[in-house]
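Quick one: structure for this chain?
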Amino acid sequence: MKKLFTSLGLMSGTSGDGVDASIISSDGKYHYNEILNRYFEYDQKIYKNLHDLRAKILKFDDLIKNTNEIDILEREITIFHAKITNEILKTTDKKVDFIGFHGQTIYHNPHERISKQIGDGNLLSQLIKKTVIYNFRQNDIKNGGEGAPLTPIFHKLIVKKKKIEPPVCILNIGGISNVTVLHEHKNDNFLSRDIGPGNCLIDEWVKNNTKHKFDKNGEIAKSGKIDELILNQALDNFENIFNKKILSFDIKDFSLGFVRGLNLEDGAATLTDFTGRIIGEGIYNFLSEAQDKSWKVLVCGGGRKNITLINKIKNTIPKNLEIQYIDDYGIDGDYVESQAFAYLSIRSFLKLPISFPSTTGCKVPSIGGIIVKNF
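Got it. Here's what it folds into:
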């Protein structure tokens, strides 16, 4: 059997509310075992600074204009990651070989081939006295890819480990929703892409109009009335974005503009319906060549807890696509992404590819992150 490495993956997604942390052991190829999963919420200062900063960065020039602010926040976020890593390392007797440090995305534009994550790998390595692997997206972009999505190679491993029979589709609903499609258990036979918004619009609406950060279980949306007129206009407008042939999205690709003027409940209902229809139709279109087969659609990510959203997706897709929770297969759906970056760090160390032409659009399979040992 190949050597097993132990890796801690740190992932802060587009919701920007905290860090998912997972320790796994893996050979970087065929095997992995879950050891630990934990979530750490950002303190109010980091949360506010992050969301204020992201609101200012709408184009590439804004990255340069806000350099000082970005540098300050990067340091704060890195120190936060160091603190939680040291806390985790005290609670486990496992010797952790690597830290897979995704950092916090503040700008992603596939047209410009730019994806900017903040997080200082050198500083993190110095503070925690561990080898850190970070900046996972840049090599893919250099090879003509969009830098996202990066988790499909791990999705593929989950399907193999859990002996889930293809055809299967893994749907991750984070801030953005993406799918990985596996027709069969062949090495190169998998596809992936972002398909549209996940939680981002619903979360933003709730944050703007309440003291809460998200619509728990979809209860606010459930109590509202969908505005069909503006919903249909918004769906038509989304078609124009989707047809630009990009494989990945940023939360800034989507705007709340079409629901302004609606009350809290009706806005939430309309946004949830909009998001659910896009996800449902996105899956259906992505699987269009295999519409005669029965597909398992395994849902992970925070959006799977929004019952109203999940029901809308179920009502949008045909009967041969069966929505299931990835948790039903013994995988914690909250930590698939953090486990993925632990796995990607091991593959990066072994110089194995983490992105592929069929997932990010890169010209050749591309290896991953920068490895730093700064202690």
